Amino acid sequence: MNGGCPEMYEESARAIRPRTRIDKTGATAASQAARPEGVRQGDVRMPSGWIQRYMKLTEFLGSVLGPDYEVVLHDLGDADKSIIAIAHGHVSGRTIGAPLTSVALQSIINHSYETQDYRLNFVGVAGTKLLRSSTFFVKDEEGRLVGMLCINFDDSRYRELSDRILKLRHPDIFVETNFAYNEEAAAVQATPPSAESSENFPNSLTELTDHLLDEELRSREANGERLSHRDKLALVEILNAKGIFMMKGAVKYVAEKLGCSQTTIYRYLNRMNGGNESET
Question: What pLDDT score does 172 carry?
Answer without folding.
Answer: 62
